[in-house]
């Protein structure tokens, strides 16, 4: 009998990152800190991905920045719309006022 390899979907992998982020948010009691760390980790990994896929990263840097930025913006827009339609109930109050910048406070 051979075992079939089950590949995870992008959404299943993302759910694993989100589960870890939720765990760290509870542990640190600071959702802003965890969000910042996730953005940094994503940027770092995406830079690595671009470097691996590129034959001349210096020449392709602007295109990579535009492509990754557009991808992130589209994904963020979709998820913001989802949270507008289905507002989450926060488990904790943000420890910092980083998020409040968005509403002008």
Automatic annotation (TrEMBL):
**Could you tell me which residues belong to the region Disordered?**
83-105
User: Organism's domain of life?
Assistant: Bacteria
The protein in question is named DUF3144 domain-containing protein
Name the species this protein comes from. Shewanella algicola
């Amino acid at each position: 009998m051979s075992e079939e390899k089950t590949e995870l979907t992008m959404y299943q992998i993302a759910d694993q990152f989100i589960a870890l982020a939720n765990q760290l948010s509870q542990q640190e009691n600071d959702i802003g800190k965890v969000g910042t760390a996730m953005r940094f980790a994503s940027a770092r990994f995406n830079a690595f991905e671009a470097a691996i896929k590129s034959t001349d990263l210096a020449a392709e840097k602007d295109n990579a920045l535009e492509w990754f930025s557009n991808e992130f913006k589209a994904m963020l827009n979709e998820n913001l719309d989802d949270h507008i339609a289905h507002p989450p109930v926060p488990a904790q109050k943000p420890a910092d006022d980083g998020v409040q910048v968005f509403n002008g406070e």
